[in-house]
Structures are given as C-alpha cells and as structure tokens.
Write a structure and sequence with these properties.
The protein has 151 residues and is of the alpha+beta class. The protein has helices at residues 3-39, 94-115, 121-142; strands at residues 43-47, 53-55, 59-68, 72-79, 84-87. The protein has three helices and five strands. Strands 1, 2, 3, 4 and 5 form a five-stranded antiparallel β-sheet that branches. Helix 2 (94-115) runs antiparallel to helix 3.
Length: 151
C-alpha cells in the first residue's frame, strides 16, 4: 500500500468515526429530551426529525409530538445547557425556537435576581448559567451559516 492510500484509508476511518460519534451524541440528546419530557408528565409519541436541528456537541432542538396528557407539539432543548421545552405555537421554526429560549432564559435569570433568589449560591449559579447559555443561543440564532441561509 502506498503512503497516499494509507492516508486516504485513515481519513476515511476518521470521517466514519466522527460520524459515529455525532450519531451517538444525537441519540443521547434525544434520550435526554424524552426523559426530560417524561419527568414533566409529557409522554412523547413522535419526533419530527426534518424540523429538528443539532449543533453537535452543544445543543439539540427537537420538535416532538405528544399524545399524553394531550395531543400537543413541543420544541424541546437539550445539550450542554438546561433542558427545557415550550409549546410549538411560540416559534414556527427551530431557529425561532432557539431565539425564544434565549429570551425566556434571560427573563428567567432576571426574575431570579429581582426576587432575591440569587442570594442563595445555587440559585445564583443557575441564573449565571441561564444568562451564559441564553447569550450563546442568541449568537447561534443570529449565525446564518449555522442555518444554511445565504447572506
């Protein structure tokens, strides 16, 4: 085997390995989103994969239908951030949902601060996490390259 053939084989293996890691991360985040919904009393029935988006290894935004307790569709966030969900009516697209979570978390952190809850170290840390992730989500929302939009 020539050096070039060995290098091509290694690149192919690396690409396959990277894809396998990506798929495992997506699968893990899907399970995390389902668990989160179940903890909130929502039983998922179907994921709308074509409308869901992933920014591996940071965040996944899922469009998930439920049948229990009622037929409803949600945007569900999971990843290296707090898991959360909202009714699909608040955002038409995954990108809009990311912006919604960003604004919602900023307001939630502000409400924690105004209520005095941030005097507790755990609540203060949580508020800081919300602000940090909200700012990151805002940047993700505004980056056309991440959404395959021609600028």
């Amino acid at each position: 085997m020539t050096e070039q053939a060995v290098a091509q084989t290694q690149q192919k293996l690396s690409a396959e390995e990277a894809e396998a890691r990506r798929q495992e991360w997506v699968r893990t985040q899907f399970q995390k989103a389902n668990r989160f919904l179940a903890e909130k009393g929502v039983i998922p029935s179907k994921v709308l994969a074509d409308e869901s988006r992933y920014l591996v290894p940071y965040m996944a935004i899922w469009k998930i239908e439920s049948k229990r307790p009622i037929n409803k569709t949600y945007w569900v966030m999971s990843g290296d951030l707090p898991s959360d969900f909202v009714d699909v009516k608040v955002a038409a697209t995954a990108r809009d949902a990311v912006r919604h979570f960003s604004m919602m978390w900023q307001m939630q952190a502000e409400n924690l601060a105004r209520s005095g809850a941030t005097r507790d170290a755990t609540q203060a840390k949580f508020a800081q996490l919300l602000v940090s992730r909200a700012e990151s989500l805002y940047l993700v929302h505004n980056d056309d390259k991440l959404w395959n939009v021609q600028a």
